[in-house]
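As the next step, I selected for study one protein, both as residues and as discrete backbone shape codes, as given directly below:
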Amino acid sequence: MTNKSFSIVFPGQGSQSVGMLGDIAAQFGEVKETFTEASDLLGYDMWKLVCQGPAEELDKTTHTQPALLTGSYAIWRILQSRKPLKPAMLAGHSLGEYTALVCAGALAFSDAVRIVAARGQYMQEAVPPGIGAMAAIIGLDETQVAAICKQSVTSEDEILSPANFNSIGQIVVAGHQAAVIRAVALAKAQGAKLATLIPVSVPSHCELMRPAAVRLVELLAGMTLQQPMIPVLSNVDVMPYRGADSIRDGLVRQLYSPVRWVEMIQQMIQAGVSHITECGPGKVLTGLNKRIDKSLQLMATSDLAGLEAVLTLETE
């Protein structure tokens, strides 16, 4: 395997779990060190929350986002200290894009922790509880899901649109709760293998997130950003970021635009990537990537065995 054929991706919300990275933390000091840094910035013991829960607290988006960023960055630090990797490119799913930018040297970890904690708060406050929802639809294509979204909207004020193009035949929709529920019923009627509400507190990546995006513009304006030292693919444009203004624009639009994960992985493959490692808690992206292209060589660092396997990889 060459560095040119190797990429790293970083998970987003949904990959968190109480007790995550515990076996790795027992072997590598970087995990607790990184969580201590983040805890000092945010004013609460994030590692205690990750280790002990309760899950309802960890699953609050204001806690989930910094916890996943911190956990993923800790794994990156372990990899880089023992086996300096120079992947062809980096990418992250939604929140994971912030981790990718930190690892590429475009954004300071301390700034990223503050941004994603605020981002979670902005997202939560943009839509009152019970107003928005998200649903996963499996077994229908993009055209069918787009049509279902249109059919499920019953007034000009209602919003419903594709939010995540996660893998071939797996699309998440987001918008007003009533419209999402109608879409689930329509998708089932049209032969979807699965159509189900996702237990989330925020309808991400749809127009309901515009108020959060406005607030994020102001926050990002005061942050130092620079050109990534490793190419980072944008969720919105599926192109590598080009400098600070490009990053600010992409991170703001990302809040109300769909995550084009399938195209991002296909872009990597077209660039010659054959090996993709998921860096951080969980194996969600590894599962999605397998369904996008079965020929990919995939690894995940969510446990000690997976991390040690990556550390023993032969790279040129």
Q: What stands out?
A: The radius of gyration is 19 Å. Residues 48 and 209 are 30 Å apart (CA to CA). Strands lie at 6-10, 89-92, 132-138, 160-167, 170-176, 194-198, 275-278, 297-300.
